């Protein structure tokens, strides 16, 4: 276990930061949360007291000016990712930015370029893919145990529609289910298949009472060799986060594909086998990979170019949903 610690600052007091990412960094082998900032000093002081964070700031600028902070986590609303990633890069901070990285691929590329020019590491916060079970799943597929891949189906839904003031329902702030949860099965499909889709077709429920964001979306991503990935995402439906990988002679079922218990099932002619990966904190794993990448101990498992490519798929999905057309990538 390393005794070296990466000193983190947190730009904002979003629920994902308070409830998941900060505790994950604190439980990691490599990180310590040294400061948190909010535009409301009382809010950051309250969060600091609750989580044992030494320093609270009343502005993001103050935190970025703190020379003792080496890396920042950005859980701000989606439309602020571009601005504060670039400002953090200019301040010499390494950056873990919440998903989706940006509002579109062009913004994501601007962020990548700014971080490259500043010589800092930028990563998108898809914590689920740092759990070793996804490498285990890929190895099972590569072994041929479930035969040739034929289809993949992912679902990530929850119901928060009654909270009309939520930023998820502000279209100009990057609201909508594709941005919020659809990005998960899309990224998982790209990870598992190891390639990019060639086209996207998405149907969405656009809600006037929620600023016309996509409250639900179902889509088809076309891959090579006739492979199709289907997905459903939503913020106005019962909670699910599942993944099914279908082969010619078996399938893999992941009941909690992105959050929750890591167990999954491999179903073949020999029966239904439960795999029980170690229960690990995905947010702590994410922090450790980030720090070791910053320290050049490991190569980046998911370079920022991957985030740009994921945004290209999201761009196509959003265009398809709003214009009701098939979009080629």
Automatic annotation (TrEMBL):
Pfam families noted in UniProt: GFO_IDH_MocA, GFO_IDH_MocA_C3
GO molecular-function term, one example from the UniProt record: oxidoreductase activity
Gene3D superfamilies: Dihydrodipicolinate Reductase, domain 2 (3.30.360.10), NAD(P)-binding Rossmann-like Domain (3.40.50.720)
Keywords per UniProt: Oxidoreductase
Domain GFO/IDH/MocA-like oxidoreductase span(s) in chain numbering: 134-253
Domain named Gfo/Idh/MocA-like oxidoreductase N-terminal: residues: 6-123
InterPro entries on file: Gfo/Idh/MocA-like_OxRdtase_N, Gfo/Idh/MocA_domain, GFO_IDH_MocA-like_dom, NAD(P)-bd_dom_sf
PANTHER family per record: OXIDOREDUCTASES, TRANS-1,2-DIHYDROBENZENE-1,2-DIOL DEHYDROGENASE
Family that this chain belongs to: Belongs to the Gfo/Idh/MocA family.
Name of this protein: Oxidoreductase
Source organism per UniProt: Paenibacillus swuensis
